[in-house]
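Hi F.,

I've been meaning to write this up properly since the lab meeting, where we talked about keeping a consistent format for the predictions we share between groups. The idea is simple: the sequence comes first, exactly as it goes in, then the structure tokens exactly as they come out, then a line or two of notes. No screenshots and no reformatting. I'm using this chain as the first example so we have something concrete to point to.
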Amino acid sequence: MCPPISTPILYPSFTPLAKISQPGADQIRLEIPAGLAGRYRLAQLDDYLGLPRQSFHWEAPVELSLTAKSSSMSIPGTWGFGFWNDPFSLVMPSSARSLRLPTLPDTAWYFFASPQNYLTLRDDMPAHGSLAAVFRSPGWPAVFSLAAAPLGPFLLIRPLARLLRRLGRRFIAESSAALPINPAEPHQYRIVWEQSRVRFWVDGKIVLLSQVSPRGPLGLVVWIDNQFAAWLPGGQLKYGTLENAEPAWIEITALRINGQPISISW
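Output, unedited:
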């Protein structure tokens, strides 16, 4: 069970020269500097710093709402906001109880990805652009990721990588929709995550009704970075960081969870 929290608190994380600021009383700005490919740049707010996944705060039903705009229509890398289980991190704080191994993804979020990304195991769903997206994985213990580690080298063999990608669809359920919007303009976003479905709204109109609902508990995250990842239908794996010629930023206003404003721990 995740512990109840009375007032959500977000904790900042950022790489050198990235910035997180509050230009207004109910406004947050996350910015990464201009730079070349080959160096990771991140500005992130989340509420699960140092926590083991079983102690993440959010279970269905829960509602997230905010207004957001970005510095351009397509920022090199990714940005977004919503709920996830931080599946790809390896966190080993001083307490063994806080050990966090990589695992399979559970998400309900708005995800904005530049064209270098290909972030679906399916061939009939959008792989990049402006997305509302849900992933649900089996509730396997994260220690299973260690048992699967020997499969890693096979991902470099393209026919086997194609096979593993198809097999992944049997275990990871997905639901997503492309958003016909310009994210550089302000839009109102809303997620209602329920036990058996997730509903997404943009500017008061429903854009995705997903019968796929992630497993909790999940953490709340808002981020912008210059990273890309792709597992292409042909089996190719690509991963890295991108050049952004100009500083890139997102502005968030009226961030609410279950109707409550969210504070930042500086």
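Notes:
The two ends are 28 Å apart (CA to CA).
The domain at 9-260 is CATH 2.60.120.200 (Jelly Rolls).

If this format works for you, I'll send the rest the same way.

G.
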